[in-house]
Specification:
transcription regulation; six-stranded antiparallel beta sheet; HTH_AraC-typ_CS; HTH araC/xylS-type domain-containing protein; 320 residues; alpha+beta; DNA-binding transcription factor activity; 2 domains; DNA-binding; globular; Jelly Rolls; Arc Repressor Mutant, subunit A; 10 helices
Amino acid sequence: MKTTEKSSIFDHGVFIKNDPEDLKIIDLLDFKEVLKNNKTEREFTNILKKANRINHEIEISHDFPLFKLHFQLNGNYEFCLKTIGSSKYKITEGYCNLFYLPNTKTKYKQIKQSGKSIEIIFSKTYLEQVIGNAYKEVFSKHEVTKSINKPFLLWKKNQVISLNLYNIIDDITNCKYNGSFKKPYLEAKIKELLIVILSDSNTKENKVLKKEIVKEDYDKISELENYIQSNLNKTLTINELAIFAGMNTSKLKQQFKIVYNSTVFKYITEQRMLKAKQLIINKNYSIKEASYKVGYKNPQHFTAAFKKLYNYLPSKLTDY
């Protein structure tokens, strides 16, 4: 298996990484393999933690099929899949997406990476083993289930990194185990992460299929969620949100609960705490600065809300 990266930032313009056929578990945070590879079916997964800022274009191609699950913890990530025309795709802070690159030496171009992200790269075989019979259900609409070599994004709209997902990512990136305990712990956490994100997404889609919510309303709630993410620093009222969604307040509360399994303001509070957490850890914001950035005029009120959600004070984040 071989990965080729081309960019003006590399010597001679090309960097070639030859991946061994028999990938072994080594470590997590140094661009190294994490799960053992199945020799015959090439089962593999990598975890890459990116904390750099890249303002150069990097063209990447693989001679083996893979899934790539990208979590953008802060900043933005832009890329272009060459076999899907010249369209650019962007994953913004707090969102994630999964895309599939088939075994056709598919090229994708990383246009810009700013901030921090986590990528999990794995094979079809590995994913089938993790989610079992749910594999066909999750990917029934996509070409990978038909063995057609076409790349795709699993979600047309990037998915929000939920509180649950952030907690799992924190467990992975701040692994507290060493030695022989590290491998099984990371394996378990990666499986948990994949199961949670795919199950949550599939549940939302099934609610539309089962007509618990009509697609038009589902789209409105999704747009509203984007609006919430962009305005966490502002005072958000239920009346304002209802007007934006084009619904009355009762319908908004009902439909939002169906899609996100949460009340509107519980969800907003969770997203504010997540945003503040990332600002404190990744951008060295003070607690006071972070509280203002996520819409709290009084840092003490922010601290109380944070403690209620996480069961520890935000001052503990300075230990990261």
